[in-house]
Amino acid sequence: MATIRLSNIVKRFGPLEVIKQLNLDIKDREFVVLLGPSGCGKTTTLRAIAGLEEIDSGEIAIDGQEVQALPARDRDIAFVFQLFALYPHLSAFDNIAFPLKAAGVAKNEIAAKVKEVASVLRIGSIIDHMPSAMSGGDMQRVAMARALVRDPKAMLMDEPMGSLDAKLREELRTELKHLHIETGSTTVYVTHDQVEAMSMGDKIAVMDLGILQQIGKPKEVYDNPANVFVAQFIGSPVMNLVDCQCDGNGDVTHVVIGERHVDRFEFSKAIYEKLKAKDFNQKSLAVGIRPEAVLVERQPTNGYIKAEVDDIEPLGPYDIVDLKVGDDVMRASTRSRYVEREGQEVWIHLDENRLHFFDTVSGESLGI
Ligand SMILES: Nc1ncnc2c1ncn2[C@@H]1O[C@H](COP(=O)(O)OP(=O)(O)OP(=O)(O)O)[C@@H](O)[C@H]1O
Ligand SMILES: [Mg+2]
To answer: How far is the CA of 45 from the centre of ligand 1 (A)?
Structure first.
């Protein structure tokens, strides 16, 4: 069990600052997912926590003890690497048992623990195989088992499911989550798969360019993204973001999109009041709306504006539809086959309760 606290971490490789003043507070038993695009500094952050990378400044505390000067072996942290490595001359069983043997654990206890973790990760059937006789997915699970088996203070996992197929990932997501609840190891889990992040994390920490953009519960980050980056990084298909102008007109709020100034959505007056209270800048305002919050009708409907279907992507349970409104394109998700063909005219509106507004210069959400 452990808390992990990162304070003002800076890490440079030569002139390149890859971690910039990172602050992260991870509670005991918490499962935090580090999410961000390739190269944003996820692996470097994990390696710094584990002691595999020296930081340039800042403090790393585990259970309140500063550890940045301690070598990796004294931090009692298990690490599942992005590029995992097994001992090639040892079977799956012996690979998993290795850290327990090294710690002098009794033989029957080792057997029981290996069996338990192997069953969770579904590698019972290959437990006697050598790495040369394993698939990539098997090897990855053996590597995960080896880290999980020894009940470390904290677990760091760097894209542990990167090479597994979609079905197995989905199964293991659930298993891993259960295992985490049982063992209670504080976990930092790196992924760039946002479905994994949403479904596994107690919290998601979104990074970009070495900077922590936002941390919060999955639902908070999804429903209230702090800025344009988070808004468009989380959620698939991505959130629509359209330049707009906004004014209060009697009892209503008008949000006008596009160059033509004819495409105008109408909302309650409260929207304008909230924007005004945030002192919004008319010249750099964009409205954000998730595709599932774009409402689509096939008939002219009061308060809706006309759009033309540009593309239909049938995904099975639902369709993703690109809609042209003037010069803008908005994506909506609809019931499958609700929209019939490209070129079709439809009428759209935006769900007032799910509107986001951003300042396009700062990129920050206005928090409405
Ligand atoms: N040993 C190193 N020497 C120099 N630059 C490095 C080193 N390790 C990482 N970097 C650079 O630091 C930045 C962050 O790398 P990092 O591996 O932490 O990214 P990441 O978020 O894990 O990416 P990915 O999702 O591709 O694994 C990158 O620009 C990378 O090129
Ligand atoms: Mg990485």
So the answer is: 10
Ligand nearest to the CA of 42: 1
Is residue 171 within 8 A of residue 123, CB to CB? The reply is no
pLDDT tens for 103-152 read: 899 999 999 999 998 988 889 999 999 999 998 788 888 988 998 888 78
The DSSP string of 213-235 is EEEE-HHHHHHS-SBHHHHHHSS
For the full predicted model, state whether its pTM sits above 0.85.
Answer: yes
- Could you tell me if 171 and 213 are in contact, meaning their C-beta atoms sit under 8 angstroms apart? no
CATH superfamily of domain region 240-359 = Nucleic acid-binding proteins (2.40.50.140)
Return the ligand 1 atom nearest residue 37 CA.
Answer: 25
CATH classification number, 4-225, choose in 3.30.460.10, 3.40.140.10, 3.40.50.300, 2.10.220.10? 3.40.50.300
13 lines ligand 1 (CB under 6 A): yes
Give the pLDDT confidence of 208-241 residue by residue, as tens digits.
999 999 999 999 999 999 999 999 999 999 999 9
Distance (angstroms) between ligand 1 centre and the Cα of 80 equals 17
How far is the centre of ligand 1, averaged over its atoms, from the C-alpha of 297 (Å)?
A: 46
